[in-house]
Amino acid sequence: MNDVFTIDEAAERLRVSRWTLYNLIRTNQLRTIKLGRRRLVPASALTECLDQLMEVAA
Question: Where are the domains of the chain?
């Protein structure tokens, strides 16, 4: 089973604010899943997001 993170955990993992994390979600740079009212971030989505951001920065 893949690990999933809450919004706060994912923001902490990326060392960004919640606001920045929600902007990544809103601009489709970070995939999330929704379970009921909860929004969770798969660990693989964090890796994909970082890879994508590094490509843009290069």
Answer: 4-57
End-to-end CA distance of the chain: 32
Q: What are the tokens at 58?
A: 């290069």
Q: How many CB atoms lie within 10 A of CB 46?
A: 19
Q: Which runs of E-coded beta strand occur in the chain?
A: 4-5, 33-35, 38-42
Query: Global pTM?
Result: 0.85
Q: Which of 11, 29, 9, 33 is nearest to 20 (CA)?
A: 11
Q: What pLDDT was estimated at residue 28?
A: 95
Token pair for 11: 């923001």
Question: Pairing between strand 38-42 and 4-5?
Answer: antiparallel
Give Dmax (Cα) for the chain: 38
